Amino acid sequence: MESFVNDNKVDQNEYDLILIGGGQSALACGFYLRRTQIKYLILDQQAQPGGAWIHGWDSLSLFSPAEFSSLPGFMFPKSENYYPVRDEVISYMDDYQSKYELPVKRSVQVIAVLKQEGGFTLKTSIGDFKAKAVISATGTWASPFVPVFKGLNQFRNEQLHSAYYKNALDFIGKKVLVIGGGNSGAQILAEVSKYTAVTWSTIGVPAFLPDDVDGRVLFDVATQKYNEQKAGNDQVQAKYNVRSIVMVPPVVDARARGVLNSKGEIERFTETSVVWKSGEEENFDVVIWCTGFKPALKHLEPLGILQPDGRVNTNGNSKVEGINGLWLVGYGDWTGFASATLIGVGRSARSTVEEVVDFLKL
């Protein structure tokens, strides 16, 4: 863990509340904060609005139609596409920030959050900031996860994570291995397979949702389960598994082309190949990791609250246990039901802002 020296001689920027991260979660919080007397600031590492969507691959789209993909207060505009595409989401988030005149300072990296009497000091790339309370809303994009494999450190051909994938044009003529059985794995496999030879590795047989089940349906199903559990029915089973693959048009097309087939699990890597569980050895020019993300919470390391899985203990919602004045919004259900989605983060943002107001007594 890094150690940081506080320089009390440096002029501090002091606020009641600072939000770290400027994506959809911070914007949703800002919507509710503007109705309060709280002096707040959003610090965003990105140079432009859009959060993780700025870094998504070129053809990335939402899983839900526009009318079911809105942040609180401002409807997502109608789209020419059934599922709005990456650039439309970025434009929407830009318009959202402008509409509500949210105070965002950009191109600022928050390096560390330190707990001090009366609140927190934030060590950043442009100096120190002080706040009585902090909401971390940095998401997961900055923390891509690659699982451990025997021999992986010996593999000398190209590797990249889905976080950095843009399109398939760089892979034409190369033999590509896509690893990961979730939505990103299926979508990237579908795209790359139109340009070059590609193989899919997953743990178990990939699970696909019915063609008519998208993010809107999954949100409704998850909401029903959430409400049942709040009412005390812990045995309720959701109709669909939210971890199954959504059959967006590119994946439907890949199925029609007969390429949605997993070869199974990998045993180990060599310098230029993988060895499958079956014992077969196969060479690949490129490996694309579609293996998910961890919470991007490195800035909280000095507080000593990060768990081995990269998470932080919360009260079941966004309030961090053991650190007064600290909340997390938008990292997944463990920080609030459906809080990692455009349509779902509003609920978590509203309750978090209510708690912050109560904490600050403003």
Please render the helix and strand layout as text.
Layout: E1 13-20, H1 24-33, E2 40-43, H2 86-99, E3 104-105, E4 110-116, E5 119-124, E6 127-136, E7 158-161, E8 176-179, H3 183-192, E9 198-201, H4 215-230, H5 249-256, E10 266-269, E11 273-276, E12 281-283, E13 286-289, E14 326-328, H6 345-360
Parallel strand pairs: 1-2, 1-6, 2-3, 6-14, 7-13, 8-9, 8-13
Antiparallel strand pairs: 4-5, 5-6, 10-11, 11-12
Q: What is the number of independent domains?
A: 2
Shape: globular
Number of strands: 14
CATH level-two architecture of the largest domain: 3-Layer(bba) Sandwich
Would you identify the CATH H-level superfamily of the largest domain?
A: FAD/NAD(P)-binding domain
What's the assembly state of these chains? Answer: single chain
Percent strand equals 15-25%
Pick out the low-confidence regions: 1-11
Q: Portion of residues in helices?
A: 10-25%
Order of helices and strands: EHEHEEEEEEHEHHEEEEEH
Structural class: alpha/beta
Report the biggest beta sheet as strand number plus sense, adding barrel if it closes: 7 strands, mixed
How many H/I helices?
6
Straight-line N-to-C gap: 35 Å
CATH class of the largest domain: Alpha Beta
Write down the CATH topology of the largest domain. Answer: FAD/NAD(P)-binding domain
Radius of gyration: 22 Å
